[in-house]
Amino acid sequence: MAPPPATEAVNYGELTTSYANKSNYDSGVIPNKEMVTRLNQSLSTTNNWDGFKFAPIRESTVSRAMTRRYFNDLDKYAESDIVIVGAGSCGLSAAYVLAASRPDLKIAIIEGGVAPGGGAWLGGQLFSAMIMRKPAEKFLEAIGVPYDDEGDYVVVKHAALFTSTLLSKVLAFPNVKLFNATTVEDLITRTDPETKELRVAGVVTNWTLVSLHHDDQSCMDPNTINAPVVLSTTGHDGPFGAFSVKRLLSMGAIEKLGGMRGLDMQLAEDAIVKQTREIFPGMVVGGMELSEMDGANRMGPTFGAMALSGVKAAESVLEIFDLRKQQNDSQ
Ligand code: AHZ
């Protein structure tokens, strides 16, 4: 549902933003009164809460409903087609494009935090609005996020509106499983017996709370997920960030990291999108993790490059998928 252009703006009381217009109310991009009336009617609660009662349940039923599904998913995704490490704005954008383009592929998203979304719940310095430079508004239109058109850039009234909408679409795909509160601790690698080429062939995971305690508890071995392609979008260096490129460095698979440079919005956004690629056999990197690999500038609080790096990352993953799958199946 594409938000209509600013010229259709109408004034609904105090609401004067360009997306507070009739067609966004009619189409349900902004929930309307009829939707709430229908909800009340279907619950039969309008002015009638006295006789309200939930359907019956036993506690073990709740427990089994959760655990059966989770362990089925662990079993199913132990062999994934694509693993995305990090559910920030780049990883989620890539997941959206990948899941929609290839409903036949199993996509596991591993997110260290309890809350997926990375740094995209707020704009800069904990302010609310999210800025995207054009043409990234095309991505907002694709996922149905309303925005204000400011000429060369657009503004989403709250970053959480972008992230929650994107997340809800990604989670609705039947071929996507998000394992949150789960950290990628290491990479699975394979050496081609003939060419001796090293490649990434999956990830090593653990509950994040366990990962945080390797220094004071012993014998907490991890779990694994095999996959022909890993897409890493773990953000720039920090307590958790740039995980995969740092691990490639420490295992001697790459010689050095460029190290993220100072802020330059103009240079940074184009560079991140253009450089999104398979940086090592079996591993595509997108978003701010790339700045650590290549020595690119940071862009600060403008998020268009994260969405479009996600779009390009999905394209890069699909370009190499058949070759990497063939190699993965034979080893
Ligand atoms: O929790 C991390 C976050 O949600 C997650 N993550 C990091 N390491 C992980 C690991 N296992 C599992 N080892 C891990 N998950 O990865 C996510 C990264 O999200 P992000 O928002 O930090 O990165 P991004 O590249 O998608 O977006 C960057 C947004 C920025 S930073 C920036 C600047 O500093 O100038 N500007 C922008 C737009």
From TrEMBL:
Enzyme Commission number = 2.4.2.60
Identify the cofactor(s): Fe cation
Which residues hold substrate?
90, 111-112, 119, 184, 221, 236, 288, 298-300
**Principal localization?**
cytoplasm
The encoding gene is THI4
Per the UniProt record, the lineage of the source organism begins with: Eukaryota, Fungi, Dikarya, Ascomycota, Saccharomycotina
- How does it get modified after it is made? During the catalytic reaction, a sulfide is transferred from Cys-219 to a reaction intermediate, generating a dehydroalanine residue.
Q: Which Pfam families match?
A: Thi4
Catalysed reaction(s) here are: [ADP-thiazole synthase]-L-cysteine + glycine + NAD(+) = [ADP-thiazole synthase]-dehydroalanine + ADP-5-ethyl-4-methylthiazole-2-carboxylate + nicotinamide + 3 H2O + 2 H(+)
- Binding note for cofactor: Binds 1 Fe cation per subunit.
The answer to whether the entry has keyword Iron is yes
Function per UniProt: Involved in biosynthesis of the thiamine precursor thiazole. Catalyzes the conversion of NAD and glycine to adenosine diphosphate 5-(2-hydroxyethyl)-4-methylthiazole-2-carboxylic acid (ADT), an adenylated thiazole intermediate. The reaction includes an iron-dependent sulfide transfer from a conserved cysteine residue of the protein to a thiazole intermediate. The enzyme can only undergo a single turnover, which suggests it is a suicide enzyme. May have additional roles in adaptation to various stress conditions and in DNA damage tolerance.
Q: Which PANTHER family match?
A: THIAMINE THIAZOLE SYNTHASE
Q: What is this protein called?
A: Thiamine thiazole synthase
